[in-house]
Every structure is written in structure tokens, then in C-alpha cells.
Structures
1.
Amino acid sequence: MALLQISEPGQNALPHAKQYTLGIDLGTTNTLVATVRSAQPQILKTEDESLIPSVVTYSTSNPQVVVGTKALGAAVKADSLTIRSVKRFMGRSAAEIKFSHPYPLVDRGDSMPAFNTPIGLKSPVEVSADILTSTMLRAEAADLGDLAGAVVTVPAYFDESQREATRKACELAGIPLLKLLNEPTAAALAYGKSNPELQKDGHVLVFDLGGGTFDVSILKIQDQLYEVLATGGHTSVGGDDADRLIAKWLRDQASTGEIDTQAQHELEAYAREIKQQLSNNAKVEVNFQGFSGVLTQDQLSDMIAPITDLCLKLTERALRDAGLTKDQLGSIILVGGSTRMPAVQQAVQAFFDKEPMSSINPDEVVALGAALHANDLTRESANRSNLIDVTPLSLGLETMGGLVERIISRNTPIPISKKQTFTTYQDGQTGLIVHVVQGEREQVTDCRSLAKFTLSGIPPMKAGVARIEVNFSIDTNGLLQVSATEVNSGVQASINVKPTQGLSEEDQQRLLTEGMQHAEQDKNTRQYLEDRLEAERELEALTPALSEFGHLISDDQAEVIQHAMQVLELAINQTKADDKANQDQLEQIRSAHASLKKLSDPFAAAIMNQAVSSELSGKTPDQI
Ligand code: AMP
């Protein structure tokens, strides 16, 4: 009898084929790729180079596409174009690319403009795919077997369109994507695997300070389950600022006046060297335009205090978001090249009164964590670690009066699915627009519009009778699906949110900060708009009711109601010019509405009585 070959979940059906997984840190400046061998994560290197510079040169001469170190040193020629920091362009529309860059871009009306290279147009997704392909070449050179899949990391602040662009790049590079994972989460996992202390239940803070960005994440570890409780940070603070501060200090010492851009670049490169030397030396000799002196670690520490102060303020905010105090943290993990600075380590240690962890190379830790997670995902492992990411901004939809109904709050662990029921506003309404927005404010105009779709074909019903269930689902990759179903008729429409407009990191920061700054004012505006809406609905219902059922009340009563309606209408109109009424106007609407209700309630009762008695007339108690 022949045996039937079967395969275990996540394993290859071929009996002897070896399977491997990859963790890829697709960085703005450098890309790293790692795998797990003999249960140990390791970076895949060539000729002792672990970093692949995230740089691609396209040229008409062969080879047409060059990635990494060779592209980094490519000469500027008419028949070639070298693209750096393509990550900044991922998921961004032409209108959103506000930062300065030297590239010829062509807006093809797609979600992202393309680079105009000598060998044709290349979208940011295609350029990223070329970088990813070079990671695959590394893996193939290591002769690891068959690729089962990869975990690719993205910044915690990447929005849906940036994540979607990254997924597409993987698809184009032929990489089976197991999951997109937030970079700080991957780093925490790398430490969790190698550090038994970290595997115990508790809270961990990941402090990631790179060249130009700061990310902070707070994780809860329980029963080997990693949950991100909160994330925060800043998109334009990092080691590059330290370089600029040292450069400024050098210019001040040498009393140098204005210098041109090229000279400033060179000076900052020199400053970077000094800064990095100061990570291993108490002081460094410096020479610049006739000035000779020394810079000490302590001086650098004072110089960069604004950077460390800002990072610690943002850390405090993330702690508040997570509902934790400093002393509730079990460990603090340092990630990113700039955490090599003793000044940063000391500031973090002083803030938490606890020594931070920094034993894993801060450049490699993200790729190593991603590799471990990829390995876990394809294995039925007893000590498999589960990671839960969070939504960086709240998601909701537009309701009457331009108000936002929040469906999923920011910092909610994903995957998540949430449902809410809505109804129609007008009699006979057969369609409605579902407008999905992102942000922390109460009004749609203050949030970011993500997508819109129409639910049509609702059978005509009285206002308020239709039951429209709206479901928001975010999968493990952070991609959002919104569906709307009219429950009585089963009519349905849905959308996968692949917004044509990505969200710039600066915008994200702004949306968060504005949400906090305007919280009180927003609460008042929402209250006002809700009260006004209720008053308007009352007026809209009363007008037809008076003509249809006016005979149920006396002429005098009808006149008094009409007068009260006019007073309310006037109060509303006075505030309509701007949507942010003052407290007095709001009180006027409320009191006019209350006066009207005193008169209209008995009228509504009379209508109801009549409806009930005509319904009952001629029926026996049994029939009732
Ligand atoms: P990353 O974005 O994580 O690659 O970090 C890059 C930043 O780390 C740059 O600002 C580097 O100057 C900085 N960096 C790298 N090595 C060191 C070091 N030894 N000391 C201080 N800063 C460093």
C-alpha cells in the first residue's frame, strides 16, 4: 500500500525540501535581511557587509539596475538616476510630497507619482521592489532552501496606504509576505527571545532614536503574548539634529559666517564623525577653519539636551496613553543608531531610574526580531510569540451635521473588528454615503478623509426604520475594510481602504497634537452641533405634521406652536454662519427647543392616540 505524502501546517509538502523564512527591515537609509538558523536569528551578510544601502541606480548601460553599496557610490551621469530614501515616497500622492528632493517625478494620476529614470518611469513601489529583490539575492546566495515567507517591518506610524504600498512592493519582488510588523515591535521581540527577564509578564518600553525619526512603543507581555499598548514619537527628530548642533558649535567657535550648502553638508559629515567618536571617547580633538580644540561628552550632552528632552516628553505622553507610570515598566529597550550616544543612554536611565537594554546591535535588532517572528509564524511552536499591533490614529465615519462617529479608537490592538448600527435620516431614502475618516477631532473637516462609498438600493422606508450595520475590520497588516449592510433588505456595499492619498508623517503628528490641543473646544462644538441637529429634526418633523394632523389641535394651539418654531428657527439661523457657536447662542437654541417641546409633545401625543385608536377600531381583544 502506498503512503500518502501529507504536510504539516506551514511546512513544505516535498519530503526533503528545506524551508526558510526571512525578516526584512526595509529602512529609509539601509535595508537588512535576517533568517533563523539553529533557532538563532542572524543577519545575512555578503563580504561582511550586513547593511544594504536603500539606494537604487537606474541607467541605460548594463547592468540597468544597481542596488546597495554599488549604487551608493554611483557617479552622477546623464544616462543614470540614483534614488535614495524611496521609503519617504511610499504611499504618497504628488500633493503630499512636500519635502525637498532632487528627483524628476511624473504624476500619472496614480496614487503615487513615478520617478522619471533613463530606463522609464519607476514607481516608489517598483524601486522598493528592486531593493527587496536584492535581499532575496542575499538569501539565495546563502543557499537556505525554499522561501516559506517573510516578515517585513514598517514604521509604527505608517498609515494604511503606506502599508499597502509596502505589501505591493513585496508582491512585485515575488516575496511571500507573512506579515507587516511595526519596527519597534520587532525590536522588542528580538530582546524578548534572548532575554529571559523580558519573557516574564510585564511592560516594556521601546525607545527608538534613528537619524531622523523617534519612535516610542509600550508593550505588554503576558503569557508570551506581546501586545502594543501605545505608540508615539516624532517624525523629524534624531541623530541628524545632533550633527547640525555640533556643526553650528564648530561654526561659532571658528566665527564662520554663512557657508554654502555643499560646505554645510561637508561640515555636518565631519560633525557626525565627531559625534560617533564621542560615543567611545570622553573627548575628541576638533579642527575647523583655524579653530583647534576639544569637544567633550559632557558638552555634547548639554548641546543635545533639547533632543533628549523632546524624546522624553513624547515618551511621557505614550506612557499616559498606555495608562502606565514609569515605575510600572519592567524593561526599557534602546533601538536606532543614535541610542549609541552615551548622552541619550544617560538621559533615558535618569528618566526611568533604570538601566536601559542595549546589548543587541541597534541597527540589526529590527531585522533580527522580524526573522524570529517569521520563523514563529511558519512553525507550530510551543513558545510561539504573538504580536498585537495598534492603530496609530482613530478611525470613524461621518454622521449628520459633519460629525465624526469614532468606531475604532487610536491605540486599539489589531486585528480588530467593530460594528455599529446607523439609520436613515429622511423618509424614502434609498442610498447613503459612507465616508471613512481618520483622526482625533470631532468634526469631519478637521480629520483626514480616507475613503467614501455609497450604499444604494435600500428599499424606501420611513426615516429611522432602516438598520444599517457598518463594520470596520483591520487585519494583521493594518489594512482596513469597511462594509455597510442594510439589515432588513440585506443590501450591502464595502470598500478596502487603499486611500489614494497617503498621510505624511508630519500630518500624522499634527492630527495627534491638534486632537489633544482642541479636545475641550471640540467637545463644546460637538455638543452644539448635536443640539442644533436635534432642534432641526424637530422642526422638520413638525412642519408636515401640522398640515396633516393640524385638525387634532385648536387653531390657537397651532399658532402658538408655529410661533415657537419661528423662535427656534431664528436661534438656529443666528449661529449658522459659523459652526462654532458661543455659549449664549447655544443656550438660546436649547431654551427655544425646550419651549417648543412643551407645546409639541401634547400634539405628538394627540397624533399617537389617533393612530392607536384607528388601528384598534373594529378589532376584538383577541385580534389586538
Ligand atoms: P539609524 O537611522 O537607526 O540607522 O541611525 C542613524 C543615526 O545613528 C545617525 O544619526 C548616525 O549618526 C547615528 N549613529 C550611528 N552610529 C553612532 C554612534 N556610534 N554614536 C552616535 N551616533 C551614531
2.
Amino acid sequence: MTQRPPIRATLAQLRSFEAVARLGGVGRAAVVLHLAQPTVSSQLRELASAVGLTLFVPRGRGLEITDEGELLLATVRELFAVWDRFEDDAARMRGLERGRLRIAAVTTAEYFLPDLIGPFAHAHPGLQIELAVENRDAIVRRLERGDDELAVMMLPPADLPLQRWPFLENPLVVVAPVGHPLASRKRLKLEQVVGEPLLAREAGSGTRRAADRLLEQRGVRWTPRMALGSNEAIKHAVAAGLGLAVLSRHTLGRDPARDGLTELPVQGFPIRRMWHLVWRRDRALSRPAQAFLDHLRRGR
Ligand code: PGA
């Protein structure tokens, strides 16, 4: 095959050519392109000589496109359609590379969320990611105000227009200190546990709410001996022998014994709950939020 020398046409020449063909004259094309008429004329001449074809013939006071010109016009339109798609993609990428992603999560989710965000953050180093960690009721207030675009929680409120996607199990378990007399039993009744001093998360916590609900359903009355404001505070208090507690299994890590903790085999436990990713149905998601959602959905 003989090598053809490449045609040296520029994007600017092609834009002028397309405008002249569409509008039927150099003057009109120059106005639309914000160029001087002689500039458009010389671009047309240069283009015709670069492609080696007659693109227009004079007709009245304007120009008429030739069959050869039509062939180029069809090609140029395809080229521009592809280029426009690239420009759209580039604009979206720029939004993703410089934008901000605001996520809110309940305190139990802080144990796994960094692992979920990690690969996405690595893939988009210019993206600023803000992760707010608070208890369930505080996250509901943030969603009401629209502080964050995405939130991770176990018990989404029913009275907000939310889209929800359950994506990970959140088993709630009864935790005791290693060496506790109940820890050697194969099976425990709920009543045996409730007879022990109990520690609970603060009011407003989803973990607390889920535990309250379960005990209420079983007709068990309980008054926690102590309410503590974080999962870590509860873990330390349990390990120190201050009482038993209901916690998300995710807060315990791979080796609970290292923290002096063990899980008790209590009837009705683990309480099987899910974590949901939620977002406001009445607000459009930003490009970064949508991309993060797509990323999570692809990964599962
Ligand atoms: P929380 O988290 O106990 O920190 O509120 C539990 C949840 O609501 O998912």
C-alpha cells in the first residue's frame, strides 16, 4: 500500500467550513464564529488546498457546497459529535477531579468506611472527601438540613424523602469481658444477660435504639447501669468489668480478645440489621456523589 501524506487540516478550519456550509455564506459564519470575514475566507482556502477538493462554488451572493464538500461535511459532523462527547466527558472528569464529596456516617460505620472510600479516593486524588461521623439522630438532623449528600446508617428515618440502598450487614452482638462467668456457656437466655449490669450507648444512637426495640419486643424491661457516648468507651468499660453491652460486631475487629472482649451466644442475637447508603430523593446528586455510589454498586 502506498503511504498517503497526511492532510494538514486544523480544527479551526473545519469549524469555519461547517459553519459556512450550514449558514450558506462566509459573512454569516464569521458572525457566528466571532471571526473576521477574511479569516474565515482564508481558512476555507487553506482547507480546500489541504484536502485537494473544491468545497464550494459561488452562487448568487453566497456559496453553494459541492458534492465533494458534502462528503467532507458529513465527515466533519461525525468528527465533531465524537469531539463533543469527549468535551462532555472531560467536563465531568474535571468536576470529579476538583469537586468535593461529603459523606456522613454513624459511629459504627467508621470501622469499615475508610476501606470502602480508600480505592475511590486513590483513583481521584484531586477530590476533597469529607467524612462526618456522628450518632444516628445527629445524622438524621444532617440529612434534614442537607449537610451531606450521602449518609451511611442502619435505621433511616421514615419521614424524609430518602433513597436507600442496603449494602452491608450490621450484626449487633452482646459483648462481655474475656473470662466472664457467662462466656463459657454454649447458649444463653436473654433473661440471664439482663440480670447483669448493662452498659448502653447514649440516647440518639442507632445501636441503642435497635437494642431497646429488641428488648421491648421481648417484653424485657431494662435500665442501663451506664450510658456511654462512643463504641470505644463502651469497649473499654466492658473490658474493665463494668458490665455487658450490645455493640455492632464491626466495632470489635478481627480479634476481640486482644481488647479483652468476647461475644456471648445469647438467644435472639445477633440482631440482624443492615447498613444503608441513603441520599435525598428531592435533590440531585453531585457528580462526585454519583460516581462514589456507582463505584460502590459496581464493587458488590
Ligand atoms: P450509632 O450507629 O449507634 O452510632 O448511632 C448505629 C446506626 O444507626 O447505624
3.
Amino acid sequence: MNETVRGIKSKLLFDLNERMALSCICPLKETANRAVPGDGNADAEIMLIGEAPGKSEDLQGVPFVGAAGKFLDEMLTSISLKRDDIFITNIVKYRPPDNRDPLPKEILDCEEWLHEQIGIINPLLIITLGRHSMNHFFPDKLISEAHGKAYRREFPAGRSQTFYTLYHPAAALYNGGMRETLKQDFLRIPKVLDVIQSGGQEGDNS
Ligand code: URA
């Protein structure tokens, strides 16, 4: 990808953030300090999608900068990636009060921005972090069964996308077994990417 296309993607994301700040209808906007639209490389092959901003993210306007973010950074390092190599965002763009789970309506209100981000970045692989993110794309799956597996999903307009589903780093942080499982699932990411890049069929269509 040349510099011009990269610049265009960054500009499109910048414009999207401006529009989101002005016209997002999510009621969480009223209680949050600021929007947390997303961060990273507009030209990334990998896009990670978490749940919702927490306290640190709400203060800084950047996703995954708290304890879960530090754990995520360690896992990225374990596969020789940095934040600058990926794009990271959440299904909900504003912090829910007291870090409660986002409500279905809040997820729906933020959906247009997430899907526009996916369209602009056009990643090879989307990694969902946690059940809320996974269930946004695969409502019937259980994270306990789906983690560490790749799936394909069709989007309107005929686009097909590969997903890889993981436990949420915050859930795994203080649970030894889940933490180890997440680290092992994370180590499979390069293999999943390789299969996609070689035109293989990583993932089922369920
Ligand atoms: N948890 C998330 O899901 N997203 C963040 O940005 C931070 C913590």
C-alpha cells in the first residue's frame, strides 16, 4: 500500500472521529468525559475490538491504556507486534458508568462508527476481545467454546471477513487458567494470518 492510500485512510478515520464526536446518539456520551474512538495504524492487517472504554481510557481518549492494556501490550510483544502495527477499538465508544456492561441499545447506537472503521481499515483479520465483542458479530457463540478459533462472516456488499475470537484481557488478568489460555490463543495469531495470506481457509463459516 502506498503512502497516498495510507494517508487517505488516516484522513477518513480522522473525519469519522469528528463526525462521531458531533453526532453519535449513544446516551453514554452524557456521562463519559470524552469519546474513545480507536487508536493505531490505519493500514493495519489486524484490528482488535474490545468492549468499552474504562476509567483510564475515558481520561485519555485512547483504548486499552489501563491494566488490561498493559497485559495486551505484553501479548503483542510475544508475537513481535507493537501498538503501531495494529488498530484497536471497542464496540462502544464511550465509557459506561462504573464500568458496567454496555447495554444492547448502546452497542447499537455505536455500531455505525465501528462498521465504518472496519470498512476504512479493511483488515485481513479482526480479533474480538471478550464475549460482548464476539457476540456483536456472532450472537450465538459461547466464548468458552469459541475462544482461540477463527471464523468467517459475510458482510453486506459481499465482503467476507475472518475473525479470531479471544477472551478479554481484563477477565483473564486475575484468573490464572484463563490468562494462560489467552496467552496460548494469542500465540496462534501469526499462524492464522499466514493461512489467510496464503489464501487458505482458516476458520469455518458458522
Ligand atoms: N476494556 C475494553 O474493552 N476496552 C478498553 O478500551 C479498555 C478496557
4.
Amino acid sequence: MTELKDYWQNYIDGEWVDGGAGRIEVIDPASGKVLATHALADARDVDFAVQAARQVHRSGELSGLRPVDRGRMVQAMGRFLLEKIDEIAPVLSLEQGKPLWEARVEITGAARYFEYYGNQAETLEGRSIPLGRNYFDFTTYEPYGVSAQIIPWNYPLEMAARSLSAALATGNACVIKSPELTPLSQAWFALAAEAAGLPSGAVNILCGYGREAGAALAGHPQVNQVVFTGSVPTGVAVAKAAALNVVPCVLELGGKSAAILHDDADLDAFVNDVRWGIYFNAGQTCSAMSRVIVHESRHDDLVDRVAEMAETLSVGPGIDRAEFGANMGAMVSLQQRDRAEIMVTEAINAGANLATGGRRPKDYSGAFLQPTVLTDVTPDMAIAREEIFGPVLSVIPFRDDEEAIEIANSTQYGLVGGVFTSDLDRAMRAARRIRAGQVFVNEWYAGGVETPFGGYGKSGYGREKGREALLNYVQTKNVAIRLR
Ligand code: NAD
């Protein structure tokens, strides 16, 4: 049994502090038990954190460092997370519901962002623009100053690491609004910043309600750049708040991503892609494979094999699932589970059929839902258009390539997409036409921290990951010099 301390605080200007809005209970979704309480920030706390970050920015303590030195600090934060993985993983597993081994995968992924962006710190170079013999002109990239980062609960460490590492590497001071369902594991970012020697105020972490602390941060007049990862409606509210202050905003929102499975694809390999694509993190992944669009000739075979795979997954408390394997944990909350379950019921009422799952496992009362496969889904059904954010796969048959692309592109989202075929020409044609920021060919989630990620359509704008992301955190200055 992992013992957690009872009360966790916010971290502002290098100090652990209480919250003006009191405390929030953090619940283990597998058991429904209270794990601990966490300080809840109000608008005043947000203001303190922004002022602390602003002070660091103005002092030049971070932005004035030689980039290689700043990069080394960022890399050290990643190494710190790996050193502490045995401490962090149970906390993340308990507060979020994911298997312990998945928590370790997430922490390793979070550390990887610090490695990558720490390495990139010294690669962001300006250029010189010729203006004739009487001038010398150059560009530089300067950090915005205070970067506000609003984080969701599904991968709280990886999502925060993604923004924090790139923002720090480029010399910004950061204020993180941690997710109110999963705030505990964020504490290790503060410890990592201290261990790496970052100045106090460079990393501030507050848990608070979105409508209060989140809104106060997104609309704070001294925030210079906002990164939001979460749902579409909240993203719209955050973007409006940023627009009122005329500051740039990155929106990483939801998805309803589809894999197109052609008749010439390797079905055995694909079943493994489905396992990761929709059942990892109990399907609470923005880039989840929530739809499979399958050639009609492979439909029945695919459904049989995927249902069989889904039934092998042992569902239960994440903290008991330490070993990498065929298992799945709880969803993050009863509310999220109930929402997914209702969407499945409504799909059945609309004409879909359950190939497997769709129910709560009878051994547990927590936020569990069996790995689910729905067939007879049509593209116009809500289940095919709306994000479920749960372990629910919709299977939709197609007749020809044209129809497959049309179905894939028939939602308001455009985060990722996939095509599975042994015909490279066909894959390339599909890759060009799938309306999404990232296309996977023959492997769902192919790519990594190095590859840019972000949405088309309602999935958002701006890119995180890869070198593209660095440009979200800097502004270009041009200096033109008249020579005498
Ligand atoms: P959410 O939008 O409810 O909350 C996200 C964050 O925003 C939380 O920290 C919340 O407190 C805060 N928030 C809520 N209201 C706010 C407001 N008015 N102003 C400022 N902040 C506010 O989303 P969620 O339920 O936590 O996360 C699930 C969603 O996130 C899904 O739609 C998923 O697809 C998306 N997501 C996207 C990505 C991506 O990279 N594209 C990654 C992870 C999750």
C-alpha cells in the first residue's frame, strides 16, 4: 500500500504555499477513496505566481543565460524525474487510474521532453538579411516572458512536460495550472526545477478550478503567451481570454481520429495497434484511435480479432498492475466513466451493436468500463463524431478508397489519422488527403517527441513537439543597423 502525505501545496516563487480557495480532495478513481487534499488556488494566488514569473523574466536570470547552460538545466530536470520514477509512478497511478507500468511509461515520456528540448536550447538561431552595403541586419528569437500552461488530467505529467520543457529551454518563466483531478504528481516538476538550479519563480505550479484559477491565468494581463491542452469549449474560452490581452495562444484540443484499414493490410499487426490506440490509458488519449474504418472484405475478421484482444485485457486497479501487459486501469472519474457508458448506450439505441464490452466489470465499484467494440456504426451517429475519451472503439466499413477518406474526414476534428496498407502509393494518397496534423502509416503512434503534433479543424492550432514547437515560445526581433 502506497502511503501518501495528507496535504499537498501549491508552489509559487520557490515556496510551498496554501491556496486562497481552500483545498480539494483528490480521489482514487479505482476505489473512490480520498487519497489526499491539495491546495486550491484563487485569482490572487495566480497573480502572485505571474508576478514571480515576471520578476524572473525581467531579471534576465533565465533569458540571459547562455542557451547551452539553460539547456543543461532543462535536461537535468528530465534526469531528476527518471531518478524519482519509483516515487512518482504510484502517485500518478493512484490519482489518475492508469496501470502502474503505464505511469512509468508516462514519466519516461515526460523526461524525454526535457532531454529533447534541453538539447534544442542552443539550436535556435537567428539569421542575417542582406540590405546592401550600408546596412547590417539580423534577427533574434526572444522568449515571450511569462508562459501560462493549462494542463488536462489524462497525461498530467507528459502534457505539462511538453510545454514546460520547451518554454524553459527558450528562456520563458512558467506558471502551470495543474488539473484539479490529478494535481499531486505535478509536485515533482517543482522539485526538479530546484534540483536543476533554476531561479525561484521560473516554475510555478498551482492547482485550482478551471473556472477560477484557470480563467484568471488565461486572462491575466501580464501573461505573455498561453498554452492550453484540453477540451474544445474550454479552449475557445481560453483563446478568447488570450485574445483580449493580444497574446498568442496554442490550443491542443480533442480528436476523433480514424485508422483506415485496407484489404491488403497486415491484420495481426493492426490488432496490436488497436490495443495501444484505444485501450492505453483507458482510451483517455486525445489522439486515440477511436474509429476504425475497415474495408468491407476484412470487417468480420477484424471485429472478431479485436473483440478477442479486448477480452484478454484484465481490468482493475492500476496500482496492482505493475507489469507491462494485457491490462487496463480505471478511468479518471466516475463522471467520465458514466459519460462514456451513456454514449455507448445511446449508440446502441441508434442502431450500433456491441461486439464486446460496454459494461462495468462486476468485481469493482470504481470508475471502470470494459474495453468496448461497437459495430454497425454509421458516420452520422454521435458515437462516430464526438470524442468519447474512453475505451470505446467504433468500427465502420467502407467499399472504396474514396469513401474511406470521406468517412475519416467527416468529423469536426483533425488531430491524427492512420492508414494501414501494404501499398505505399495508396498510403501516400491517403496521407495527403487525411485532414489531420499527423498521419500514421502502418503504425499508430509512429513518431515521437521529435515529430510535430497538433490539430487541424477543431483539434486546435499551433504545434507542440518537434522543432516547430520552439517557435511557439519565442518572438522574432529584427535589428537593422545603418553603417557609417
Ligand atoms: P478541460 O477542458 O475540461 O480542462 C483542461 C484544463 O482546463 C483543466 O486544467 C481545467 O481546470 C482547465 N479549465 C477549465 N475551464 C477553464 C476556463 N474557463 N479557463 C481556463 N482553464 C479552464 O479538459 P479535460 O477534461 O481536463 O481534458 C480532456 C480533454 O483534453 C479532451 O477533449 C482531450 O482530447 C483533450 N486533450 C488534448 C490533448 C492534445 O494534445 N491535443 C492532450 C490531452 C488532452
